[in-house]
Predict the structure.
Amino acid sequence: MNFLQVLFSFHGRINRAKYWLAVLFWVVIDIVVFAVLLGMLGSHLLALGSEPSGADIVRAILSFGLGVILVFLLVFVPMIVSGFAVGIKRLHDRDQSGWWILLFYFGPVVASAIGQNSDSGAGALVSGLVSLGISIWAFVVLGCLRGTRGANRYGPDPLSGDVIVAPSRA
């Protein structure tokens, strides 16, 4: 499985090392993109002179918006798709359905939103703990636990070295 398949294919299994390699890849991409965008915005603001007005600063930031949208489409959308693909393959390695990824990725967000809209401190605390619990569970399942040994319904063990050879059509 090549690196693009690791990042974007929704089929098969990947081990923890490939999972963490994909996470590291996207963290580095995020840092580089953020640094470039921040540098571009900084130079744009510095070009305004020594004492720009508040309106000039707001105008400079708003004119920068189209570039941010393009970066979002070119970098962050593939990163989100890759995050789902990598997470699903890790779940497959554990012989679990890829649908669990919805709980792992959206569960903490939903629980936190419920807590923020709660009128009671106890409700906010409970939903915060639920959010934390789901996040820890996802971290352990996706990033720490070994996959099932041997082949499972999603493919061969990525650590076994077994290679599936497609039958020849000759």
About this structure: The chain has a mean pLDDT of 89. The chain is about 70% helix and 0% strand.
